[in-house]
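PROTEIN DESIGN WORKSHEET
SECTION A - STRUCTURE
LENGTH: 278
TOKENS:
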């Protein structure tokens, strides 16, 4: 018989004590300790980043010379340094060019902890659909040799998603970190080293990955070695100054430097501003 969920479990308490926005932080820490996905100086894209604990982990790992962009349907209200950008946006309708920003530089690491609103029926298919979107985006946003870590809720379509990841990455497999609740069906698909031919085909193609019909998925409770990453160029001072976004708020993610309580309205800046500095 399944045990009732212990709300205040070890990882929940640790997250509170250590200042992480959610216990999910420890999942990424464990996966990264084992697989060395993220390195100092990396450019990291985090899809489904709210409330922000993965970004908090990423911020420590990449250091001040790295850059991270987080996208979520929800606003992130955690305080970050100047090199961490959060945007309200839907991964299904956000274009790779918007994610990469003005510099057009690809990311070294693509993370997705995106989760559908679970109902108990077809959650595995909704989760696989999110993962398929991540894999559609990967060749357009990741550099050759770049790494991936994405969450999937185990079920019927899972083997197909894993098989797809295996074709795209030099090395791919799954990970179930200790911080994942035993009762949870979540697994993490880890891909190391985006294959050069997959990345090249995306560059050669003028088409962006097909945009799936807009569908809002509400929040769920937070509960071969790859090639060495290239360092992003240093942000210029001028580029660091925020630029306000002017158009298309619904389809285009709105980047902000989140601050507790402000809900990101103050200091909002376009994702383009972040791209310019990279
Ligand atoms: C488990 S939470 C992520 C927790 C986060 N990694 C952290 O450590 O704080 C899952 C997130 O996926 C987001 N999400 C679900 N569908 C999405 C979509 N289509 N586009 C962007 N974010 C999405 C939800 O809004 C939710 O915040």
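SECTION B - SEQUENCE
RESIDUE ASSIGNMENT:
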């Amino acid at each position: 018989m399944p045990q009732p969920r212990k709300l205040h479990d070890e990882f929940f308490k640790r997250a509170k004590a250590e200042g992480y926005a959610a216990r999910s932080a420890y999942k990424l820490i464990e996966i990264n300790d084992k697989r060395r996905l993220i390195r100092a100086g990396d450019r990291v894209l985090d899809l489904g980043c709210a409330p922000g604990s993965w970004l908090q982990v990423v911020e420590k790992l990449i250091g001040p010379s790295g850059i991270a962009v987080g996208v979520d349907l929800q606003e992130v209200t955690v305080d970050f340094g100047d090199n961490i950008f959060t945007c309200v946006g839907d991964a299904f309708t956000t274009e790779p060019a918007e994610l990469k920003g003005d510099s057009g530089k690809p990311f070294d690491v693509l993370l997705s902890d995106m989760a559908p609103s679970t109902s108990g029926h077809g959650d595995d298919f909704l989760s696989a659909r999110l993962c398929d979107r991540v894999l559609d985006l990967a060749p357009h946003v990741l550099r050759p040799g770049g790494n991936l870590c994405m969450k999937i809720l185990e079920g019927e379509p899972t083997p197909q998603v894993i098989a797809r990841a295996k074709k795209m990455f030099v090395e791919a497999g799954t990970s179930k970190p200790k911080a994942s609740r035993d009762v949870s069906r979540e697994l993490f698909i880890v891909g190391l080293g985006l294959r050069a031919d997959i990345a090249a085909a995306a560059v050669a193609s003028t088409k962006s990955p097909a945009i799936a019909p807009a569908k809002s998925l509400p929040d769920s409770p937070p509960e071969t070695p790859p090639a060495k990453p290239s360092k992003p160029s240093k942000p210029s001072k001028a580029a660091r100054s925020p630029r306000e976004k002017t158009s298309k708020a619904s389809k285009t993610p709105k980047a902000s430097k989140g601050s507790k309580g402000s809900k990101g309205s103050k200091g909002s800046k376009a994702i383009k501003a972040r791209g310019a500095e990279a």
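SECTION C - NOTES
Residues 21-22, 24-25, 47-54, 71-74, 90-92, 113-115, 217, 219-220, 222 surround S-adenosylmethionine (CB under 6 Å).
The longest strand covers residues 142-153.
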